[in-house]
What we know:
Layout: H1 2-16, H2 23-39, H3 42-45, H4 50-53, H5 56-81, H6 119-185, H7 187-208, E1 213-214, H8 215-233, E2 237-242, E3 251-252, H9 258-269, E4 276-285, E5 288-295, H10 308-319, E6 323-332, E7 335-344
Parallel strand pairs: 2-4
Antiparallel strand pairs: 1-3, 4-5, 5-7, 6-7
Helix pairs in contact: 1-2, 2-6, 5-6, 6-7, 6-8, 6-10, 7-8, 8-9
Amino acid sequence: MVVLVGLLLSGFRILLNPTNIRLSEIALPFIFLFLQVALAPIPWLWGTDEKARGGFFFRFFRALAFNILWVTLSLSVMHLTHPFGLPRHHPQAEGGPGMPPPPPSGEPRPPRHPLPFFPEIGFGLLNVTFALIIGWEMAEKELTEARERRTAELLRQSQFRALRNQLEPHVLYNALNGLSELIHEDPLAAEEVVARLASLYRMLTDYGGADLALLAEERRLVEAYLSMEQMRLGDRLRVEWDWPPWADTIQAPPLFLQPLVENAIKHGISSLGEGGELHITCQRQDSTLALQVANTGVPPGTGDRKGVGLENLEARLGLWDEASGTFSLTREGEWTIARVEWTPRSMA
């Protein structure tokens, strides 16, 4: 748009006087149009919030003073380096084209009459007016877009927190279900599980409230959860970790791994009398990170609906704008593999 308007103004200048034109006059519209786009919105946007920016009239007079200043300085610099505009005196005083020649030597010259209008002043007033209009429009557009982005971000955060708050009681609900089974089978073990459940709840309260957390904390949470399940299932639950040291330093939203582990035990292992194996892995390939939980036991049915934990996990992955994440649930031989992959946008 700036280039098109600049070409239009330059073309108009050429049409007015195609025989007497300078390069500075052609470049002038482009220079001022780019300055308008860069500088005009600034005084309308000063301030960190609506209150600091002030009301319309306060911003208007601030923008007026600012635009007069930069337009005057720009015109002064351009006039000193590349003088432009009409002559300061009537062309007849210089014997311009179509005018009578100057009087012979020795005769007095007629007095010079200054023109009543300075082109630079008119050009400056035009730019100040244009700067006020375009600056206000551009600033309002930017502020509106910023408000929309902020509203969308607040909505995303509230959805993310709602999903996370939904998952925390779900974890405790499933743990209590397991505890109710153990009370009848082994009351002493059930008492120990109650103590561990209280510890798990404290961990969920501290850890689950963060937007991002280290995977080291997620691993400790999963270990606490597995210790309860181990007391309930005994030798029927066989767990193996493939967890390199660097994995503890990775940051991710809370409760990415725990739902995978819970789903594997609840739907794949605990329903079989002989139990099954559980392999927990953290992997990295180039800039892609992955958490994988593989389990033997009952395979997922073709039409089975995902549980609350996995549906919650998929929804949170879709809302996580710091990374591009995916969830998959597949069957390979006797293993059911649940996998969460994500690529941080800063590493993509």
